[in-house]
Amino acid sequence: MSNDDYEIRYPINAVNIKKFAELLGKTPSAVNDMVENQKLPVINLRDPNKPNARVGERWIYLPEFNRMVREAYFNRPAEERDAWLKWIGL
To answer: Per-residue pLDDT for the chain (90 aa), expressed as one digit of tens each?
Structure first.
């Protein structure tokens, strides 16, 4: 069984680029570009025994990403933000 065969069933605060891409429906390459352009909240993981080593893995910090999405959503004009409610008749 590989790591990709596991289903995540518990709250988690960070995921690697591949999993984040899967969650968003983007390619890992597209997410990597977002990371390189500092568009995502990233945690850089390094080997603690090699403090001068290059970054080993980059993980996306989900609570901050979710906060940014909520802020972007609620900063939209109410008529745009609530348009889907009107569309479904609520």
So the answer is: 555 666 656 578 999 999 999 999 999 999 999 999 999 999 998 888 887 877 788 999 999 999 999 998 888 888 888 887 888 887
Give the domain extent around 61. 9-87
CATH number of domain containing 34: 1.10.10
Residue 56 belongs to some domain of the structure: yes
Structural domain total, the chain: 1
State how far the Cα of 12 lies from the Cα of 43, in Å rounded to an integer.
14
The closest of 18, 19, 23, 15 to 41, measured between CA atoms, is 15
Predicted TM-score (pTM) of the model is 0.72
